[in-house]
Amino acid sequence: RSIHTGRRGGGFISRGGLDGARGDIRRSAMPEDTAALVMTNPRAESSWPSESDLANLRADVSAFAKSHGVPVDPKDVRVAVAPYRVCPLGAHVDHQGGCVAGMALDCGVLFGFVPSPNSDSVGADRNESVGPTKVLLRSDAFAGDVRFDVRDPFGTVTDEGDTTDRNWGALARGAAAVLNDECENDKNEKRKRKLALGCIGVARSFPIGVRMDGGGVSSSAAITVGLLLAMRSVNGLGGSNEESMNEESNEPPSAASRKRTDESDSTKWRVARSARRVENDFLHVKCGILDQATICLSRQSALVVVDCALETHEHVLFGGRGTANASQEGTGCKARSTETVDETVPAFKILLAFSGLRQALTSTGYNGRVEECHEAAAFLLRNSTGGSTLRGMTWDSTTGDTATLRSTGDTSGDNPGDTPATSKLSDVPYETYVVNRVALPLSLRRRADHFFGEARRVSAGKTAWRAGDLDAFGALMTESGTSSITNYECGCVPMNALLTIVCATTGVYGARFSGAGFRGCVVGLVETSGADAAASAIAGEYKRVHPELAGDAKVLVANSGHGARVLW
Length: 568
Prior knowledge:
Layout: E1 2-3, E2 13-14, H1 32-35, E3 38-40, H2 51-67, E4 78-89, E5 99-115, E6 134-139, E7 146-149, H3 167-184, E8 199-205, H4 219-234, E9 242-243, H5 255-263, H6 265-282, H7 290-297, E10 302-307, E11 312-317, E12 323-327, E13 348-354, H8 366-382, E14 393-395, E15 405-407, H9 430-436, H10 442-467, H11 470-486, H12 493-503, E16 508-514, E17 521-527, H13 531-545, E18 555-558, E19 560-561, E20 565-567
């Protein structure tokens, strides 16, 4: 195994399946047959969604409602903004209670919606099948409409049109079911109730014309968050991340609105937890909370670092600006921002190289790998002699040895009696891992190695990001990508080849899989001035290596973005 994590471009990774690294892939003029594969977001970093995006969607919702006999003024349409996300560091550790570093993109899902009509609030031309509790939805990604009663979302399945792909309907029904359960079990007796109002809505994905489902940017989590925000909004559930914005301008949040957003962090965590429940319970994916928390909590140009065990987060600002918002949401404290977020755009772009693989070539074994992590944790805990877990330790950079841990004396969460089903690697004392790793079966040892390696990389990545050191941060990304292949054992021939191509391209600081690595895309950080040329070089080389996938392969250059919210 070898890895080069030096300066931009010329990087290489090699080990089973990553053959074919060809040194430095240089920038060149974009060939005509490659131009169609490259898409650059032309907007300024904070401008998504644009006024035209919002106006077009509101008109679509109005027309959709009218087609079902419900008159709607476009001005009354609310819009849930749910961005896609990337995770530069901290892959495959959220389900083990690890720390992850993510950021939202300036593209994603817009969900325009209005409350379903009250019987006495609309004209006689109202379609009688669309009553106050009905949910009626349409998406540009899936054929057919989704229709159900918000009080009993799985009572009667009445989707119209093509229902070969049930995920879209399952996400919507799951969102309603989770909110109903949470409302009915609210500790506040006055709030105990079922949802009273449904909604009529249309989902649009951005960039227009680019399929993101199966792309590794958490499109399912994004639409789930959007649906939850919409249902919370129409039912008057407090703190739906709503921002009242001037219809004439879609400026980024002001300092005052940022303060309000800080104070609503507990609500954002509730939405993230609800969205995770939808995927766990209704799509049967054993994911952690990485995707949902990143989508809900991100700030533009900042890393959101999430402790998935304690469910707390912090925003690490780029380039020596420190840390803003160390949220102790898990203890019920409200977040307080100690400094204003600097909106200066850093000297990087986010590059998304889509492989053209929408379905995994083989069974991914994702849930099986999660179980192996639990088994590794249970084995190590059975052999534990005590010590501090990662929650009570920090990576010591004062000695220059990033492999040294410094204890803070916190042993909370250690529980040697846990079973394989409940044990998590974040509960394993680091000393126990070091002493006992060689006794683990090989597959379990690799899972543990990846987890503890990612813990080091996330900690070091925070330092590099705060210092504005993109070379160091990019090297950590590439190292993470290698560990995903060698220790977590994910990837496939096309994805491995694409990762190699991206890492070898001039201008790229570093890259890793976005998602599990069995399909979807590779995410990289690239210098702003060379982003388009790098995208062109990657598209051309990947088309040469895998021409059979080039038809659905795209390279998108994006920016970081703000987290989920409701505009109206």
